[in-house]
Structures are given as C-alpha cells and as structure tokens.
Amino acid sequence: MATKLPIGTLHELFAGLQVVDTADGTTLAGEVRLSIAINLNKLRPLIEAYERTRQRTYLDISKKILGDNERETPAQREKLQATFATENDKLRAGEHDVDLERIDVADLKLDENTKINSATLAQLMPILDGVEKRPKPARAARPTTKPPAA
C-alpha cells in the first residue's frame, strides 16, 4: 500500500533501515531481511534525488550570495546558512508516495538484537506494525514517614 510521507521522514527511514541491515550480530528471518532490502531499493532513488537537489540548491544559493568572491564574509556565511536551511526544510517537507513493505516489530527480535536501539526504532516507525501505545507502568508508592511525635 502506497504511503505519502515527507522526504525528510523517508530520509530518516532509509538511514534506520541501513542501520538494521548492517548491524553486526543482528539476526533476522530471511523474509524480514528481504523486506528491508526491498524498502532500501525503493527509497534509494528518492534519497539520491533529494541529496543531488540539496547539493545543487546549496551551490545555487552560494553563487547568488557570494557571487565571484572566493572568500565569504561572516555576514555572507550567516545569510547563506539561513537561506539554505530554509530551502532545505522546504525540500524535506515535500511529500512522496512510496509503496513500502511493512515490518512487524516482533520480527526485529529486539531482546536478541540489542544493536537496534531506540533511535533506530524511531526512524523505522512509519513502517512498523505491532507498535501500540503502551500504558505507563504504575509506580510503586513511596513509603511515607511521619515526623516523630513531640
């Protein structure tokens, strides 16, 4: 099923899938590895297009702000960074339809595959099934101490 996601989210998802795919000592079922490989192959062209566009956008902004100057002034550097950050945010917000394979969180065997950390899981959330909001565990009541009687 095609999902419409911002390119920034797809970029993070791609990075997370690469971590899971290449983490030393991670053992996954073949069908999970295949789903990861399929997703990486579907995302790679979009990520490469984003990276090329991002680089080209930086060069265009740089030429516009710096002109023929080989050295930038602090004011030009600040303007370049601010302008590029704004344009990059626009690029990352652009949404794209991608038909991605879903992965059940249980299939990641998180108790065994400790190299899959919480940051990586956060990157994978758009394609994870079996993740539901869990109630917070109840805290044990603290013993109350009464002041000594006078």
Overview of the structural elements:
The strands form 2 sheets. This protein has a two-stranded antiparallel ribbon with strand order 1-2. It has 4 helices and 4 strands, in the order βαααββαβ. It is flat and about 80 Å long. The termini are far apart. Helix 1 crosses helix 4 (118-124). It has 150 residues and is mostly helical.
Helix coverage percent: 40-55%
**Strand count:** 4
Largest sheet: 2 strands, antiparallel
- How many domains comprise the coordinates? 1
Tally of alpha and pi helices: 4
The value of Rg in angstroms is 23 Å
Instruction: Please state how the strands of the largest beta sheet are arranged side by side.
Output: 1-2
Distance between the termini: 72 Å
Task: Quote the average pLDDT.
Answer: 90
What's the order of the H and E elements?
A: EHHHEEHE
The structural class is: mainly alpha
Strand content: 5-15%
Shape: flat
Low-pLDDT ranges? none
Brief sketch in words of this structure:
The protein has helices at residues 7-22, 30-66, 74-93, 118-124; strands at 2-6, 95-99, 103-104, 128-129. With 150 residues, it is mainly alpha-helical. Helix 1 crosses helix 2, helix 1 packs across helix 4 and helix 2 packs antiparallel against helix 3 (74-93).
Helices and strands in order, then pairings?
Layout: E1 2-6, H1 7-22, H2 30-66, H3 74-93, E2 95-99, E3 103-104, H4 118-124, E4 128-129
Parallel strand pairs: 3-4
Antiparallel strand pairs: 1-2
